[in-house]
Design brief:
This protein has 10 helices and no strands. It is an all-alpha fold. The termini are far apart. About 30% of the residues are buried.
Length: about 220
């Protein structure tokens, strides 16, 4: 029998759960790279297995279907669970989300939310866009994407409701329309367009979208510099 490999930082052999978690993360990282290179339809379970250095049967054992793999990949990217040693966190449980909800002004609330969540889009945008394209012809992917978008809409609407209740939206702008504006400007499509097609930096996109949303959503828009 082969000896257990002592590859933990404390020198002990990894447990079965730790090995399973590492295998899962390896597959997800391989799937991320495959989707980035080839899109969802171009990605195959065999290609994911080859890139991750695991058997294709292992990929199917962990994720069962390609659509399920996509859903888990979206969730992992949102939580920040793709890198070794990362501490996955749901956006609603993160410090920046709590700080945004507790902010004392509309502009502070919006700024904390935008600056906190922008790192999520840096991780998720490529996978989300590939899923959006695939969802046009694949009902399973459409279901996965609808669930992810539902979570995003709920979070954004929560922020918009608080802006409206405590600080005030622009006159004539209701919560539904404000949420739609928020979802459109602060999402993967615009993020990719600005950073990949137009060459904006991550920081430039964050600054621009914060300024744009402040002017479009809030009653007391920031003054011109």
């Amino acid at each position: 029998m082969a000896e257990a490999v002592n590859d933990n930082s404390d020198g002990r052999a990894p447990t079965r759960r730790e090995r399973a978690a590492r295998t899962r993360r390896t597959i997800l990282r391989a799937a991320y790279a495959e989707i980035a290179d080839r899109g969802y339809h171009g990605m195959t379970m065999q290609a994911v297995a080859d890139r991750g250095g695991v058997a294709v049967q292992t990929v199917y054992l962990v994720f069962r279907t390609k659509a399920q793999l996509l859903g888990e990949l979206l969730s992992a990217a949102i939580r920040g669970d793709l890198d070794e040693g990362s501490v996955p966190t749901r956006p609603q449980e993160s410090e920046w989300f709590r700080e945004a909800i507790a902010a004392g002004s509309a502009h502070e609330m919006l700024e904390r939310f935008v600056r906190g969540a922008v790192d999520i889009w840096a991780r998720v945008a490529v996978v989300h866009e590939a899923a959006r394209v695939a969802a046009l012809t694949d009902p399973e992917v459409a279901t996965v994407l609808a669930q992810t978008e539902g979570w995003r809409q709920d979070d954004y609407r929560r922020v918009v409701v608080l802006l409206d209740e405590h600080h005030g939206l622009r006159p004539g702008l209701d919560v539904d329309r404000a949420t739609q504006v928020f979802l459109t400007l602060y999402g993967p499509g615009v993020y990719l367009s600005m950073t990949q097609e137009h060459g904006w930096t991550h920081q430039e996109y964050a600054e621009w979208v914060l300024d744009a949303l402040s002017r479009l959503l809030l009653e007391d828009a920031p003054a011109e510099a």
